[in-house]
Design a protein that fits this description.
Distance between the termini: 15 Å
Number of domains: 1
Helix content: over 70%
Radius of gyration: 23 Å
Number of strands: 0
Number of helices: 5
Structural class: mainly alpha
Order of helices and strands: HHHHH
């Protein structure tokens, strides 16, 4: 066993990933809902009134923050799965544990990817629809399927918020299940080290 693997296992302290992810996912969802609420209170986007323009600017800034933060939460989830997956692979090889835990880790990780990809696509599309809904934009969706550009943006934002919440719930469940896999590997490594008279 390499010294690098030994050091990783000996100093292995996985933070409470479930709590961290849940906190970040709730914040992202709140930001998305806040962006929708501010968007509903914009009023007539064609008005040159300073108060209206200020509300539009606030909505845009909150929307961009929500888009960025929600994408960051998905990226953190993916990074967790990639990092722990690599750790599981190395640990399984170092302690000859077989590949069952690693395969389970891969199955859980790849199960979350379609939802993440869909969410990121919807977040980008909602931002784009918001830009098209701006009266100053030369492009317009007004009249397509009998809807206005603002309605496309609104329905896109609602769909995005709902899908994002559902995906976050699925990611939280996957992280919880994956944490169980990691804990099982840690327990097995401790058992092996105790049998060999190594420090645990």
């Amino acid at each position: 066993m390499s010294a690098n693997i030994h050091a990783k296992i000996q100093n292995c302290e996985f933070p409470n990933v479930k709590r961290i992810f849940l906190t970040l996912a709730i914040l992202a969802s709140c930001l998305l809902i806040l962006a929708v609420v501010f968007g509903l209170n914009v009023g007539d986007a064609k008005s040159l009134d300073k108060a209206t323009q200020s509300r539009i600017s606030t909505h845009m800034l909150i929307g961009l923050a929500a888009l960025t933060f929600a994408t960051l939460v998905h990226a953190i989830s993916l990074t967790y799965f990639m990092g722990t997956g690599r750790w599981l692979e190395e640990t399984s090889n170092a302690y000859s544990l077989g590949d069952s835990w690693y395969k389970e880790s891969q199955r859980i990780k790849y199960g979350t990817l379609p939802g993440m990809t869909l969410c990121i696509g919807l977040l980008i599309a909602t931002g784009a629809l918001g830009a098209v809904a701006d009266p100053a934009t030369p492009l317009s969706l007004d009249g397509v399927w009998g809807l206005s550009g603002r309605q496309f943006h609104f329905f896109g934002a609602i769909l995005t918020a709902i899908v994002n919440v559902l995906t976050n719930v699925a990611q939280f469940a996957a992280i919880s299940k994956h944490s169980g896999v990691v804990d099982s590997v840690l327990e097995e490594v401790r058992r092996i080290r105790e049998e060999r008279g190594l420090p645990t």
